[in-house]
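Comment thread on ticket #2218

A.B. wrote:
> Attaching the input chain for the structure job we discussed in standup.
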Amino acid sequence: MDIIKNTPVKKRSWIKPTVFIVGALVFSVWQITQASSDTKVSRSELRLAAVQKSDLPFTISGFGKLISKHKRLLTSPTVATVEEILVLPGTQVNADTVIMKLSNPDLRLQVNNAEMELARHKAGLRELKINQKSAYLAHQAILVQIKSNLAAAELKVEAQSGLAAKGIVSSLDFKRSKLAATQLAEQLDIEQQRLAHLQNAHQEKISVQGQWAKQLDANLALKLSLQAGLVIRADIEGVLQSMPVTLGQSVAAGEKLALVASNKTMIAQLKIPQNEAQDIAIGHQAIINTRSAFVSGVVNRIDPVITNGSVVIDIDITEALPVNARPELKVEGKIEIGMLTNALYIKQPVGVKAHSSSQVFTLLAKQQTATLRTMKFGRVIGNNIELLSGASEGEQFIVSDTSSWSPNHTLTITD
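C.D. wrote:
> Ran it. Output below, let me know if you need it in another format.
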């Protein structure tokens, strides 16, 4: 007899692995949650700052340099070659300091030709004056002779007038004597006019030749001036700032040779961020740090052009600069804008910008825990930043770099 055996039904085998996986996931999430919600940080790693409340001088800082108020650009007077360089950039110079010497052989030849032409003309002018003097004296001699002849003729007419009345001298001879006297008188008048005309002509010719001599003299003076200009002098007291030419280089007329900056009258030129420059006005007082001294100044110009997010501010120096001050010296400046009365402020946290809203970790009552708080900030004042909302006097905040921590973290601070 066949016996029928009951085959047992197998239980499902996937339940246990599933439960294990779910449990592992829950445990992992719990660990992550615990880690993210309670990050431990040593107090020594943090930089803390308390909110303060007081009157705060509002200053804006910037970096820049000293620049000369008066500069002299030295250029070549003519086409030339740099023959000798005597002074290098950075050297202190006086007005008569020779910086370099240029050469131009053609200009030297032009000077020689101009000198010879002027000398020839002056010699010709002297000869002309001598010839004119001789002609004038010769004409005066003619006038003297005519005057003498006229006087004799008049005496003859006077002598014959009585004799002609008595019939001793014929009327014809008397008339001839009178005619001769009249002709001599007319000749004298004409010769006197000729002499006056000769004098005027001589004067005009001398004047023309004199003007020509002046032109030649001016031409020579110009050539000599150009030649003298080949010796390049500083012209002002200061510092030789730049020299864009080299020994042996050919330069064109008007080409830049050197730049000299006066070190007696300098201003500070600061670069201020655009968002801060809007608070600056002409007349604001400033303090300039030259690294060796602090000097006072006043804002006298605000550049209307914004370059790379910055505005250039010119500061007139109102005190004597230290002896080591020179053009292009790097300086730091603080411009005094005003006084913030009863202001809340804190040391500027890393990454926080002026006129922004940012989250900053604040310490709770027992100072063992820190949580994020959104705060509204105002102006940056030196190393401090103005607090507009989100904090009260005395509260402490973490102002060091917290960028590595998630915004959702609560920090546990350990000693």
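A.B. wrote:
> Thanks. Noting for the ticket: Confidence is low (pLDDT under 50) at residues 1-12, 29-36.
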